[in-house]
Amino acid sequence: MTASTASQAASALDLPGIRHAVDIALEEFLGRKADTAVDGHLPSEITELLHNFLFVGGKRLRPLLCVIGWYAAEGRGDLRPVIRAAASLEMFHAFALIHDDVMDRSATRRGQPTVHRQLAALHGDGRNHREGEHLGASAAVLVGDLALAWSDELLHTAGLSRDQLARVRPLVDSMRTEVMYGQYLDLLTTGLLTGNVVSALEVIRYKTAKYTVERPLHIGAALAGADATALAVCTAFALPLGEGFQLRDDLLGAFGKPETTGKSHSDDLREGKHTVLIALALRHADSDQHAALRALIGNPALTDDDAARIRGILTATGARDRVEHMIHTCLRQARHTLDTAPFPRAATDALRYIADAAATRTS
Amino acid sequence: MTASTASQAASALDLPGIRHAVDIALEEFLGRKADTAVDGHLPSEITELLHNFLFVGGKRLRPLLCVIGWYAAEGRGDLRPVIRAAASLEMFHAFALIHDDVMDRSATRRGQPTVHRQLAALHGDGRNHREGEHLGASAAVLVGDLALAWSDELLHTAGLSRDQLARVRPLVDSMRTEVMYGQYLDLLTTGLLTGNVVSALEVIRYKTAKYTVERPLHIGAALAGADATALAVCTAFALPLGEGFQLRDDLLGAFGKPETTGKSHSDDLREGKHTVLIALALRHADSDQHAALRALIGNPALTDDDAARIRGILTATGARDRVEHMIHTCLRQARHTLDTAPFPRAATDALRYIADAAATRTS
């Protein structure tokens, strides 16, 4: 995709083209980092791992929302700095996922071994299993740290004007703090099985709704100089969409097909993740179902049969249907906001497309 | 300390005053973060843990070097933004130490349980020991992530001019990348006992000499608008001082008094850290000593008697004396650079004071 002109905002947004441009920005940045590592006789595996992690999959949802936010606020002029700022969100997301996978002890992501598993395999030779695991987790924490530092570098070397940078800085700061607190809450509630739907929704708000949807839209809109009203409309669309998106993720985490989602459908259950789905099941379970859920969820030795039994209870208690209904309500609310949003048609259409994809996604 | 005027550069630098001003900047920043957490009904323990970690100890070496770098390059005008930029280095260092302690599985730091141990104690109730440990480590990784994000926020909200910010950004980027690669190298070589002194010195170069001394000086000097010559003189002073500083750290890690250093003097040995001290001992050990070192170093079940035996061998092989001699050479070289450095007298005196303190420190 070449640099945009104002006329583009009038026609449909080229989402695959935006995605491609974001990928090129990531590729160029990591290429320079790989060159620097070679020059300093530093290990090349870190940039290789990150490159592989970024390019084996990923929906680029946050960069897309960032660029759509720019169009929504009637951004004008050179799109390239906006694309690089959008790419910085994907690099940040790589950091978040790599650290999350260490914390959740996940074995696969995007159909591949997780970064910590790859590093344990790469450097575990001559160490016992537990030492190899610890080394892999430690090295993955560092790879994540680098992705976080580099996301920052991508942002402030994006070629944004000083005014643009000054406008987005507080939003990026908020985004980082919010998702880290969200993950912290997620961590503390994991393994503590309760029927508390409100606390599960609070984690979703910080960890997904604000982080994945609201802040990327805000950042893009702020780059275009959006006023407070435009940001408020972004929020009104983003929070229900983000909630629906995460509820779908929770359903896929339990009922998804691993060959489609690229991750296990037992990890969340084995780890004892405190999702709305689980909270609703506990709340509506009879005493036998309740006892079974408490005995099985969060058990590190969970078998496939155990996981299948949990799935049966999630369905039988109506929790699965209730979550489907919540997703439906969230997405209706998000779409409703779009009906009256003061955005150019192309931006509204793109947001509607993303909302539809979030509702029906299988990965 | 009040805002500096140019006349101060002529007299001796008030290092305790600078340190105090840095502490106030950290305190104010964390206070605002604590308020934000309260407003968002988020856990207050993260800011409390960071506050405690920062204020229970720490030499503030990096902030001091940053401010001295500013004076060395004849900085003029309001010192307050420089102090806040210096404070951001201390917040970054909190991130680095908290993550390092997780990776090294250290039990104590600054005379207190490490952050991951505190978090395991705080939230481990009702979980088995290993699960509690994993939760503590995961939560500490997140607290470190927040410290990293907040160090960035401290920097770009320091009140620096846009020109100052543009000058220091690439240096801060380099500093982060260098220390993360250094820690990565450290991690990969830990537990692999070899007599390779060169690779141990390479880790020191990235992890300490550049990170702890060179980059803080560069950042301070760049804030004052230093030219390439001034930065080169900073490097010529910084790299040997940093090497000497880390070699002293390695000696303290094996021979220091825990009640003075605030950390165990067996952790490095138990973890199998690949230090210059150990590499030299392996290189000069006879076959019995060599076998004993290989059997004991890196043994997770290392006893106090084992550690005492290793210390005996480190001394008997002459490794301890050789490291003392290397420290002496490094510091002589650093001091020699100061003799002809084109810096104001007050800055040179302060750097000389820091070099002397690094040579003789016991903690």
Could you tell me how far the N terminus lies from the C terminus of chain A, measured between alpha carbons in angstroms? 26 Å
The proportion of residues forming helix of chain A, as a percent range, comes to over 70%
Helix and strand element order of chain A: HHHHEEHHHHHHHHHHHH
Q: Which CATH-level-2 architecture of chain A?
A: Orthogonal Bundle
- Report the largest inter-chain contact: A-B, 47 and 47 residues
How much beta of chain A, percentage-wise? under 5%
Largest sheet of chain A: 2 strands, antiparallel
CATH class of chain A: Mainly Alpha
Name the average pLDDT of chain A: 92
Strands of the biggest beta sheet of chain A: in what spatial order?
1-2
The name of the CATH superfamily of chain A reads Farnesyl Diphosphate Synthase
Query: What is the CATH fold-level name of chain A?
Result: Farnesyl Diphosphate Synthase
Radius of gyration of chain A: 21 Å
State the oligomer. Answer: homodimer
Give unreliable regions of chain A as ranges. Answer: 1-10
Total number of strands of chain A: 2
**Net shape of chain A:** globular
**Count of DSSP H/I helices of chain A:** 16
